[in-house]
Amino acid sequence: MKVRVDAGVCAGFSACLGVCPEVFELHDEGYAVARVGDVPKELEEAVRQAAAQCPSGAISVSED
Ligand code: SF4
């Protein structure tokens, strides 16, 4: 699974950090970034939840 955050869409609500701090972190400029491109198996469900809960729809996940 791959994940990315669209910095232009992210509004810095930090919901994703609350759900999966292992993958998401807040950049100095106030938007979230994904620390990994390839999501470890054990974190896939948390990343899916973070994407579903992001108020801006800034997190995209691809299942390959
Ligand atoms: S939940 Fe969405 S809007 Fe909020 S910091 Fe994460 S990616 Fe950005």
From TrEMBL:
PROSITE patterns: 4FE4S_FER_2. One of its GO terms (molecular function) is electron transfer activity. Pfam families: Fer4_15. The lineage of its organism: Bacteria, Pseudomonadati, Pseudomonadota, Gammaproteobacteria, Nevskiales. Keywords: Electron transport, Iron, Iron-sulfur, Metal-binding, Transport. Ferredoxins are iron-sulfur proteins that transfer electrons in a wide variety of metabolic reactions. It comes from Solimonas terrae. This is Ferredoxin. InterPro entries: 3Fe4S_ferredoxin, 4Fe4S_Fe-S-bd, Fe-S_cluster_ET. Residues 1-29 form the 4Fe-4S ferredoxin-type domain.
